[in-house]
Specification:
This protein has a single domain, classed as 3-Layer(aba) Sandwich (Rossmann fold), CATH 3.40.50. The chain contains 12 helices and 9 strands. The longest helix has 21 residues. The two termini are about 25 Å apart. Strand 7, helix 8 and strand 8 form a beta-alpha-beta unit. The protein is of the alpha/beta class and about 300 residues long. The protein is globular. Strands 3-4-2-5-1-6 form a 6-stranded mixed β-sheet. It has a 3-stranded parallel β-sheet with strand order 7-8-9. The site of adenosine-5'-triphosphate has 19 residues, from helix 1 and strand 8.
Length: about 300
Protein backbone atom coordinates (compact mmCIF):
# COMPACT_ATOMS: atom_id res chain seq x y z
CA UNK A 1 0.00 0.00 0.00
CA UNK A 2 1.45 3.34 -1.01
CA UNK A 3 -0.18 5.51 1.67
CA UNK A 4 -2.08 4.72 4.84
CA UNK A 5 -5.64 4.11 3.69
CA UNK A 6 -8.45 5.00 6.11
CA UNK A 7 -9.34 1.75 7.89
CA UNK A 8 -13.01 2.28 6.97
CA UNK A 9 -12.05 1.29 3.44
CA UNK A 10 -10.20 -1.86 4.55
CA UNK A 11 -12.78 -3.82 6.61
CA UNK A 12 -11.25 -6.40 8.94
CA UNK A 13 -7.80 -5.17 8.01
CA UNK A 14 -7.98 -6.77 4.57
CA UNK A 15 -5.79 -5.55 1.73
CA UNK A 16 -8.53 -4.70 -0.77
CA UNK A 17 -11.06 -1.83 -1.02
CA UNK A 18 -14.74 -1.68 -0.25
CA UNK A 19 -16.82 -3.38 -2.93
CA UNK A 20 -20.08 -1.81 -4.06
CA UNK A 21 -22.09 -4.02 -6.40
CA UNK A 22 -24.57 -2.12 -8.59
CA UNK A 23 -26.68 -5.14 -9.34
CA UNK A 24 -30.37 -5.83 -9.94
CA UNK A 25 -32.08 -7.85 -12.63
CA UNK A 26 -33.93 -4.88 -14.07
CA UNK A 27 -32.86 -3.30 -17.36
CA UNK A 28 -32.45 0.49 -17.49
CA UNK A 29 -32.83 0.84 -13.73
CA UNK A 30 -29.96 3.43 -13.48
CA UNK A 31 -27.15 1.13 -12.28
CA UNK A 32 -24.58 2.67 -14.65
CA UNK A 33 -25.63 6.26 -14.01
CA UNK A 34 -25.31 5.75 -10.26
CA UNK A 35 -22.07 3.76 -10.37
CA UNK A 36 -20.29 6.28 -12.59
CA UNK A 37 -21.74 9.35 -10.85
CA UNK A 38 -20.78 8.13 -7.39
CA UNK A 39 -17.32 7.04 -8.50
CA UNK A 40 -16.63 10.38 -10.19
CA UNK A 41 -18.01 12.37 -7.26
CA UNK A 42 -15.74 10.51 -4.84
CA UNK A 43 -12.75 10.83 -7.17
CA UNK A 44 -13.20 14.59 -7.54
CA UNK A 45 -13.21 14.75 -3.73
CA UNK A 46 -9.89 12.93 -3.59
CA UNK A 47 -11.06 9.34 -2.94
CA UNK A 48 -9.56 7.05 -5.54
CA UNK A 49 -11.46 4.13 -7.02
CA UNK A 50 -11.96 1.72 -9.89
CA UNK A 51 -15.15 1.23 -11.91
CA UNK A 52 -15.40 -2.33 -13.26
CA UNK A 53 -17.60 -2.39 -16.34
CA UNK A 54 -18.84 -5.99 -16.46
CA UNK A 55 -21.71 -5.37 -18.88
CA UNK A 56 -21.26 -6.17 -22.59
CA UNK A 57 -23.30 -3.03 -23.35
CA UNK A 58 -20.10 -1.14 -22.32
CA UNK A 59 -22.09 1.78 -20.90
CA UNK A 60 -19.75 2.76 -18.10
CA UNK A 61 -16.72 2.32 -20.39
CA UNK A 62 -18.30 4.83 -22.78
CA UNK A 63 -19.24 7.30 -20.04
CA UNK A 64 -15.70 7.11 -18.62
CA UNK A 65 -14.09 7.80 -21.98
CA UNK A 66 -13.68 4.52 -23.89
CA UNK A 67 -15.88 3.39 -26.77
CA UNK A 68 -15.16 0.33 -28.90
CA UNK A 69 -12.85 2.26 -31.24
CA UNK A 70 -10.82 3.68 -28.35
CA UNK A 71 -10.51 0.16 -26.93
CA UNK A 72 -9.08 -1.47 -30.07
CA UNK A 73 -6.04 -3.51 -29.03
CA UNK A 74 -6.57 -2.74 -25.33
CA UNK A 75 -7.11 -5.33 -22.63
CA UNK A 76 -10.57 -5.55 -21.09
CA UNK A 77 -12.54 -7.22 -18.29
CA UNK A 78 -12.50 -10.33 -20.47
CA UNK A 79 -8.71 -10.63 -19.96
CA UNK A 80 -9.26 -10.47 -16.19
CA UNK A 81 -11.85 -13.23 -16.42
CA UNK A 82 -9.46 -15.43 -18.40
CA UNK A 83 -6.57 -14.61 -16.05
CA UNK A 84 -4.55 -13.17 -18.95
CA UNK A 85 -3.78 -9.83 -17.33
CA UNK A 86 -3.50 -8.05 -13.99
CA UNK A 87 -5.78 -5.29 -12.77
CA UNK A 88 -3.07 -2.67 -13.32
CA UNK A 89 -2.61 -3.87 -16.91
CA UNK A 90 -6.33 -3.58 -17.70
CA UNK A 91 -7.51 -0.53 -15.75
CA UNK A 92 -7.35 2.73 -17.73
CA UNK A 93 -7.42 6.31 -16.47
CA UNK A 94 -11.03 7.52 -16.52
CA UNK A 95 -11.53 10.45 -18.88
CA UNK A 96 -14.22 12.32 -20.78
CA UNK A 97 -14.57 13.64 -24.25
CA UNK A 98 -13.78 17.32 -24.87
CA UNK A 99 -13.23 17.18 -28.64
CA UNK A 100 -13.69 15.01 -31.74
CA UNK A 101 -11.46 12.09 -32.64
CA UNK A 102 -9.29 9.72 -30.65
CA UNK A 103 -6.04 11.59 -30.00
CA UNK A 104 -5.16 11.99 -26.35
CA UNK A 105 -6.05 15.69 -26.53
CA UNK A 106 -9.65 14.82 -27.44
CA UNK A 107 -10.08 13.78 -23.78
CA UNK A 108 -9.55 15.22 -20.31
CA UNK A 109 -8.49 12.86 -17.52
CA UNK A 110 -10.52 12.44 -14.33
CA UNK A 111 -8.07 12.28 -11.43
CA UNK A 112 -8.17 9.40 -8.92
CA UNK A 113 -10.36 7.16 -11.07
CA UNK A 114 -9.67 4.16 -13.29
CA UNK A 115 -12.03 2.04 -15.36
CA UNK A 116 -11.81 -1.62 -16.22
CA UNK A 117 -13.35 -1.48 -19.67
CA UNK A 118 -15.83 -4.05 -20.89
CA UNK A 119 -16.00 -5.73 -24.28
CA UNK A 120 -18.81 -7.13 -26.43
CA UNK A 121 -17.27 -10.52 -25.59
CA UNK A 122 -18.44 -10.09 -21.99
CA UNK A 123 -21.83 -11.30 -23.29
CA UNK A 124 -20.16 -14.74 -23.12
CA UNK A 125 -18.81 -14.34 -19.57
CA UNK A 126 -21.28 -16.76 -17.96
CA UNK A 127 -20.48 -19.41 -20.58
CA UNK A 128 -16.73 -18.85 -20.10
CA UNK A 129 -17.12 -19.53 -16.36
CA UNK A 130 -19.30 -22.58 -17.02
CA UNK A 131 -16.62 -24.00 -19.35
CA UNK A 132 -13.85 -23.70 -16.77
CA UNK A 133 -14.86 -23.46 -13.08
CA UNK A 134 -11.41 -22.03 -12.20
CA UNK A 135 -12.58 -18.80 -13.86
CA UNK A 136 -15.05 -18.41 -11.01
CA UNK A 137 -12.02 -17.25 -8.97
CA UNK A 138 -11.03 -14.38 -11.28
CA UNK A 139 -12.24 -11.68 -8.90
CA UNK A 140 -10.96 -13.45 -5.77
CA UNK A 141 -7.49 -13.52 -7.37
CA UNK A 142 -7.60 -9.80 -8.10
CA UNK A 143 -8.54 -9.02 -4.51
CA UNK A 144 -5.93 -11.28 -2.94
CA UNK A 145 -3.10 -9.84 -5.01
CA UNK A 146 -4.27 -6.22 -4.67
CA UNK A 147 -1.79 -3.73 -3.20
CA UNK A 148 -3.09 -0.28 -4.11
CA UNK A 149 -4.80 2.49 -2.16
CA UNK A 150 -8.22 2.72 -3.82
CA UNK A 151 -11.17 3.26 -1.49
CA UNK A 152 -13.93 1.56 -3.50
CA UNK A 153 -14.37 -0.93 -6.34
CA UNK A 154 -17.59 0.12 -8.11
CA UNK A 155 -18.93 -2.98 -9.90
CA UNK A 156 -21.34 -2.27 -12.77
CA UNK A 157 -23.27 -5.38 -13.84
CA UNK A 158 -25.58 -6.49 -16.60
CA UNK A 159 -29.22 -6.87 -15.58
CA UNK A 160 -28.92 -10.57 -14.74
CA UNK A 161 -28.00 -13.02 -11.97
CA UNK A 162 -25.72 -15.37 -13.86
CA UNK A 163 -22.33 -16.84 -13.04
CA UNK A 164 -20.46 -13.58 -13.56
CA UNK A 165 -22.37 -11.63 -10.89
CA UNK A 166 -22.05 -14.67 -8.62
CA UNK A 167 -18.25 -14.71 -8.98
CA UNK A 168 -18.18 -11.16 -7.58
CA UNK A 169 -21.06 -11.30 -5.09
CA UNK A 170 -19.55 -14.24 -3.20
CA UNK A 171 -16.51 -12.02 -2.48
CA UNK A 172 -18.57 -9.39 -0.64
CA UNK A 173 -18.56 -9.21 3.13
CA UNK A 174 -21.08 -7.51 5.39
CA UNK A 175 -19.14 -4.21 5.30
CA UNK A 176 -19.30 -4.10 1.51
CA UNK A 177 -22.59 -3.29 -0.13
CA UNK A 178 -24.90 -4.65 -2.72
CA UNK A 179 -26.16 -1.33 -4.01
CA UNK A 180 -29.18 -1.64 -6.31
CA UNK A 181 -30.06 1.56 -8.12
CA UNK A 182 -33.69 1.68 -9.16
CA UNK A 183 -35.96 4.20 -10.79
CA UNK A 184 -38.93 5.57 -8.90
CA UNK A 185 -41.16 3.18 -10.83
CA UNK A 186 -43.36 0.46 -9.28
CA UNK A 187 -41.91 -2.08 -11.74
CA UNK A 188 -38.37 -1.41 -10.47
CA UNK A 189 -39.38 -1.54 -6.79
CA UNK A 190 -40.96 -4.94 -7.39
CA UNK A 191 -37.64 -6.36 -8.66
CA UNK A 192 -35.84 -5.75 -5.36
CA UNK A 193 -37.47 -8.79 -3.73
CA UNK A 194 -35.84 -11.09 -6.29
CA UNK A 195 -32.47 -9.50 -5.60
CA UNK A 196 -32.91 -10.17 -1.88
CA UNK A 197 -33.78 -13.82 -2.66
CA UNK A 198 -30.71 -14.10 -4.90
CA UNK A 199 -28.43 -12.71 -2.16
CA UNK A 200 -29.89 -15.23 0.30
CA UNK A 201 -29.04 -17.98 -2.19
CA UNK A 202 -25.44 -16.74 -2.49
CA UNK A 203 -25.05 -16.56 1.30
CA UNK A 204 -26.56 -20.04 1.76
CA UNK A 205 -24.30 -21.54 -0.83
CA UNK A 206 -21.19 -20.13 0.86
CA UNK A 207 -22.17 -20.59 4.48
CA UNK A 208 -19.31 -22.11 6.45
CA UNK A 209 -16.76 -21.59 3.70
CA UNK A 210 -13.48 -20.07 4.82
CA UNK A 211 -11.91 -19.26 1.46
CA UNK A 212 -14.46 -16.60 0.47
CA UNK A 213 -16.45 -14.10 2.59
CA UNK A 214 -19.75 -15.09 0.96
CA UNK A 215 -21.86 -12.46 2.71
CA UNK A 216 -23.22 -10.01 0.12
CA UNK A 217 -25.56 -7.65 1.97
CA UNK A 218 -28.01 -5.05 0.76
CA UNK A 219 -26.72 -2.20 2.95
CA UNK A 220 -27.65 0.65 0.64
CA UNK A 221 -30.15 1.29 -2.10
CA UNK A 222 -30.51 4.20 -4.52
CA UNK A 223 -33.83 5.54 -5.67
CA UNK A 224 -33.42 7.74 -8.74
CA UNK A 225 -35.76 9.85 -10.82
CA UNK A 226 -37.67 10.69 -7.65
CA UNK A 227 -40.48 13.26 -8.05
CA UNK A 228 -39.76 16.98 -8.20
CA UNK A 229 -42.13 19.95 -8.41
CA UNK A 230 -41.84 19.94 -12.21
CA UNK A 231 -41.79 16.16 -12.67
CA UNK A 232 -44.42 14.71 -10.42
CA UNK A 233 -46.19 11.63 -11.76
CA UNK A 234 -48.51 9.58 -9.58
CA UNK A 235 -46.61 6.37 -10.41
CA UNK A 236 -43.30 7.88 -9.26
CA UNK A 237 -44.87 9.07 -6.01
CA UNK A 238 -46.39 5.63 -5.44
CA UNK A 239 -43.08 3.89 -6.14
CA UNK A 240 -41.25 6.23 -3.77
CA UNK A 241 -43.76 5.51 -0.99
CA UNK A 242 -43.45 1.75 -1.61
CA UNK A 243 -39.66 1.87 -1.54
CA UNK A 244 -39.74 3.89 1.68
CA UNK A 245 -42.15 1.44 3.34
CA UNK A 246 -40.27 -1.70 2.30
CA UNK A 247 -36.63 -0.58 2.23
CA UNK A 248 -36.55 2.67 4.24
CA UNK A 249 -33.68 1.44 6.43
CA UNK A 250 -31.27 1.08 3.50
CA UNK A 251 -32.45 3.90 1.22
CA UNK A 252 -29.85 6.57 0.51
CA UNK A 253 -30.89 10.21 0.00
CA UNK A 254 -33.01 10.32 -3.18
CA UNK A 255 -31.62 11.25 -6.58
CA UNK A 256 -34.21 13.46 -8.20
CA UNK A 257 -35.51 13.25 -11.74
CA UNK A 258 -33.83 15.24 -14.49
CA UNK A 259 -34.24 14.87 -18.26
CA UNK A 260 -30.57 16.01 -18.40
CA UNK A 261 -29.51 12.59 -17.11
CA UNK A 262 -29.87 11.13 -20.61
CA UNK A 263 -27.08 13.30 -21.96
CA UNK A 264 -24.25 11.34 -20.36
CA UNK A 265 -24.32 8.73 -23.12
CA UNK A 266 -24.65 11.23 -26.00
CA UNK A 267 -21.82 13.37 -24.68
CA UNK A 268 -19.64 10.50 -23.40
CA UNK A 269 -19.16 12.27 -20.12
CA UNK A 270 -20.21 11.38 -16.56
CA UNK A 271 -23.01 13.45 -15.08
CA UNK A 272 -21.04 15.22 -12.29
CA UNK A 273 -18.57 16.53 -14.89
CA UNK A 274 -21.05 17.17 -17.70
CA UNK A 275 -23.70 18.94 -15.62
CA UNK A 276 -22.33 19.56 -12.11
CA UNK A 277 -25.28 21.75 -11.14
CA UNK A 278 -28.11 19.55 -12.38
CA UNK A 279 -30.24 18.09 -9.60
CA UNK A 280 -28.95 14.51 -9.92
CA UNK A 281 -25.33 15.73 -9.64
CA UNK A 282 -26.21 17.73 -6.53
CA UNK A 283 -28.00 14.67 -5.13
CA UNK A 284 -25.11 12.27 -5.84
CA UNK A 285 -22.86 14.66 -3.89
CA UNK A 286 -25.32 14.42 -0.96
CA UNK A 287 -25.28 10.63 -1.26
CA UNK A 288 -21.48 10.50 -1.10
CA UNK A 289 -21.37 12.90 1.83
CA UNK A 290 -23.93 10.69 3.59
CA UNK A 291 -21.67 7.69 2.95
CA UNK A 292 -18.73 9.48 4.56
CA UNK A 293 -16.81 10.67 1.49
CA UNK A 294 -15.94 14.19 2.60
CA UNK A 295 -14.11 16.51 0.23
CA UNK A 296 -10.38 15.96 0.89
CA UNK A 297 -9.33 18.57 -1.64
CA UNK A 298 -11.01 21.58 0.06
N1 LIG B 1 -31.98 10.99 -12.06
C1 LIG B 1 -32.44 10.60 -13.26
N2 LIG B 1 -33.55 11.18 -13.78
C2 LIG B 1 -34.03 10.80 -14.99
N3 LIG B 1 -33.49 9.87 -15.78
C3 LIG B 1 -32.39 9.25 -15.32
C4 LIG B 1 -31.81 9.58 -14.05
N4 LIG B 1 -30.72 8.81 -13.88
C5 LIG B 1 -30.63 8.05 -14.99
N5 LIG B 1 -31.61 8.30 -15.86
C6 LIG B 1 -31.82 7.67 -17.19
O1 LIG B 1 -32.23 6.33 -17.05
C7 LIG B 1 -31.79 5.54 -18.17
C8 LIG B 1 -31.16 4.24 -17.70
O2 LIG B 1 -29.99 4.54 -16.96
P1 LIG B 1 -28.74 3.57 -16.92
O3 LIG B 1 -28.20 3.33 -18.26
O4 LIG B 1 -27.83 4.14 -15.88
O5 LIG B 1 -29.43 2.24 -16.36
P2 LIG B 1 -28.81 0.75 -16.24
O6 LIG B 1 -29.51 0.11 -15.10
O7 LIG B 1 -27.33 0.82 -16.17
O8 LIG B 1 -29.26 0.11 -17.63
P3 LIG B 1 -28.77 -1.29 -18.29
O9 LIG B 1 -29.57 -2.37 -17.61
O10 LIG B 1 -29.11 -1.12 -19.74
O11 LIG B 1 -27.30 -1.41 -18.03
C9 LIG B 1 -30.82 6.43 -18.93
O12 LIG B 1 -31.46 6.94 -20.08
C10 LIG B 1 -30.50 7.54 -17.95
O13 LIG B 1 -30.17 8.74 -18.58
MG1 LIG C 1 -25.91 -0.23 -17.24
Amino acid sequence: MTAAVDRRFRPNGRNWPLIWAYVIECGGSTKTTSATSMAVTAALRGHSGVVFDLDSNMSSSLVLGYDETALKGKKTAMDLLYGNATLDEVALPARYRIDEGYDDDAFATIPNLRVVPSSPLMAGADTAIAEDPDRNDWFAEILRSYQGDDTVFYMDFPASYGKLPYSVLRMLDEDDSVMPSIKADPKDVKMVKRLIDELERVRDKNRGRRSVPGRPTLNHMLLTGSPTSSHNEAAARRATAQAEALYGSVLLPYVRYSADAKKLYEDECPLPVLLPNSVPSVDYRKVMTHLGFADLTA
